[in-house]
Design goal:
The complex is a heterodimer of chains A (about 400) and B (about 280). Chain A is of the alpha+beta class. Chain A has 14 helices and twelve strands. In chain B, the strands form two sheets. Chain B has a six-stranded mixed sheet with strand order 6-7-8-3-9-10, sandwiched between helices. In chain B, helix 3 crosses helix 4, helix 4 packs across helix 5 and helix 5 packs parallel to helix 6. The chains are: A alpha+beta (about 400), B alpha/beta (about 280). At the A-B interface, helix 1, helix 11, helix 12 and helix 14 of A face helix 2 and helix 3 of B.
Chain lengths: ~400, ~280
Amino acid sequence: MIRENMRIAVQGIVSNRLRSALTMLGILIGVGAVILVVAVGNGSSKAVQSRIQALGTNTLVVFSGGGFGGGRGARNGTLSQRVGITSQDVTALENKVNAPDVKALSPVRNASSVTASYNGSTYSPSQFVGVLPAYSEIRNYPVGSGRFLTNDDQANNSKVVVLGTTVVQNLFGTANANPIGAQVQFNATTLTVVGVLKPKGSNGAQDQDDIALIPLSTMEESFTGSTTPYSQLAVEATSAGTTNAAEAEILATLDADHHITATSATQFNVLNQTSLLATSSANTHTFTVLLAAIAAISLLVGGIGVMNIMLVTVTERTREIGIRKAIGARKPDILSQFLVEAVLLSLLGGLLGVAAGLIGSHFKIDGTKPVIVPVSVVLAFGVSLLVGLFFGIYPANRAASLRPIDALRYE
Amino acid sequence: MRLPLLRRGGQGPAGDVARPSDLLPVAPDGAPAAPAPPREVIVVRRVVKTYTLGEIAVHALRGVSLSMEHGDFVAIMGASGSGKSTLMNIIGCLDLPTSGRYLLDGVDVRGMAEDELADVRNRKIGFVFQSFNLIPRTTALANVELPMVYAGMKPKPRRRRAERALAIVGLADRMDHMPSELSGGQQQRVAIARAIATNPAIILADEPTGNLDTTATYEVMDVFSRLNAQGRTVVLITHEDEVARHAKRVIRLRDGEVIDDHRLSPVDGPPPRLRGRAEDRGAS
């Protein structure tokens, strides 16, 4: 019976090609739109996440003072309160008892308005920082060529520098130049280039390759001195899952060290990549759901199209229904015949919609590379079948309820 | 009496349509498993059918009583409005009487639900309509197979039976033709093949020659006569005397009542036209 119904349905669809194609188009657009919208949303959220992850997933950045940029202001604060991150704080945080979830940390000193010059070309890197060797791992700055700063560099106040590709490009003319071993003048100090960082691109706010890294000891000796507090503290948590615990431990340790008793009075801020990630994905998620809901409505409209066409088909084939009933078709036989046809219509439309969505996702849309979410494909396709079933029931039931004598007399 | 209806496909090959694969009806004493079928295949007792059109009650049948035997060839005649279509709808189980009883092959259809009536039509009645009523864009073979599809028969025996039925009406070479590729007479013969394929208790033909020319009419009536000669019960509704002359018995209706009922030839003998020709052949 099912085979017979399939045969009848295929025949019905094929004999009214244009009408069937237009009906399927409604479902196609609905399914394709849902898949594509979800893919674009997913793609843009993936892009933001990968940018944030490039900063280092388990990274925390600790600032002192009122805001993210407060490190420098705190330097001028009242010293009696010892506001600002000091080497004492670093020692306290390195103690596993105080901060068990901290894996590694590196104090950071920024020097402002440092100009580099080499062979007549000059350039001021937007970041000129003194760090410990662990910084490479903490902030996810792998070296592309040469080496990163070492413990020996730190111990010997070595006059060495690791450059980002933007700095290399500006000093040596091209990002592909090999500057290893070159002597570059930074203000009054000559530094030897020992490594070049792998390019990271922009994190959305700034060019992460516009950076020059030197040993913290060299920074203190030749540029900033060691009396002022650190600009910031780069911390790596033991894993992405422990960043929030590490944040709490850091704040508690720093507050204790600075005799701050009320947590509300804390002078420190922690920039937590994980919470940043969570916020951004929550935003894109909301947006995606909203767009997918609009796309789903178009799927519903497609379903109404199926119902409309099925009603026309039932009217057209009233006489055929009469014949079938006269020779022994029961109500369920007729019902299933038209239901199969409606479902087949929406099934074909759904399949084409999936194809359209998959093909469409190969193209960049507004700068975003869509990334297909498999669940959305299954869901959109499944819903298209349900739509066919739901909107097919009324016309099919109408056909099945026709009285054979009336249907036979229908012209 | 009321026979339990067999569920389709559920009772295996013992199901009603899978009676002896021979397309001929079972002889009254030939089916040991089933109770001997009654001699009278159609019993209509004081059947009244009243329609209400708005506020007017139309009395289409005013107490018709008749019975038909196995192997009979009956023509029901009457002008339009005489109630013959209503009677045919009731005999064909397409409609139920307002009052009175109707027994088809021993089965009382009173109070039956729609799907039960569909089963009765499927197993006991072979319909032939004036306008052929084949399913368009479907081959002759598939059209003949259709009632057996609804009976739940397996594809292979279904096909075998359909091929044999088409051979009986002389269309073995037209099985794969669409209705649109066949002449009127050929289409009507396909419809007859469809009607006999399930081996029904009666063949019910409603003005089967109404849309046919003289030659095709002769062809089709010849098929009916031959089927009747093989023992099939044929009930024919017509308003043409020429067509009615093929029958063994003619019943006339007027204003919803039987006004005339006479027999042209005995139930057990061959139908009049075939007998005529046999005599012709014997004479020559």
